[in-house]
Amino acid sequence: MMIYTCTMNPAIDLFTQFNHFEPYVVNRSVFEDYQANGKTINISFMLKKMNMDSVATGFTGGFTGNYIEEELKRAGIVTDFVSIEGITRINTFIKAPDREYKVVNRGPEISLDAQKQLIEKISKLGHNDLLFVSGSLPRGVDDSILKKFRNCPC
């Protein structure tokens, strides 16, 4: 049995903190942290903390997609993403003394060919495998893709 986690719209989350945050001027952060993120990517990280293996899949592209895959591999998580055109999104979370700002980007559009590749990967899962799918759907992906995942033998 293997656990698979499918994040179709992963992101790098950039967390920053500022002592002052003002419009129209250069604001210098006092803290920043970059994290590979996505609902089921987080499941893979939590499973690893519980000494359980998983395979992370979904769509990644560009230097940001490479960063996400490298962070997962560094944590000892196997990856099997479909490589896409475009750049995996970056979300920004800004903490200032009196406010917090959350900027969540929409991400790249996913081609029909890339969607077919992911469906093919999912269709190869075994009867004893477990699949987690969660998170937002990227542009170009209709929720009917989830019905196609239901046809997998897992």
Q: What does this protein look like?
A:
It is built from 4 helices and 9 strands; from the N terminus they run E-E-E-H-E-H-E-E-E-E-H-E-H. The chain is globular and about 55 Å long. The strands form 2 sheets. Strands 1, 4, 5, 6 and 9 form a 5-stranded parallel beta sheet that branches. 27% of the residues lie in helices and 29% in strands. It is α/β, with parallel strands linked by helices. The mean pLDDT is 96. It has helices spanning 39-49, 62-74, 112-123, 145-150, and strands at residues 3-7, 11-17, 31-37, 54-60, 78-79, 82-83, 89-95, 100-103, 130-133. The longest helix is centred in the middle third of the chain and has 13 residues, at 62-74.
Write a brief structural summary.
This protein is of the alpha/beta class. Helices cover 27% and strands 29% of the residues.
> Uncertain regions: pLDDT < 50 for 5+ in a row?
none
Report the order of strands and helices.
EEEHEHEEEEHEH
**Distinct helical segment count:** 4
Shape: globular
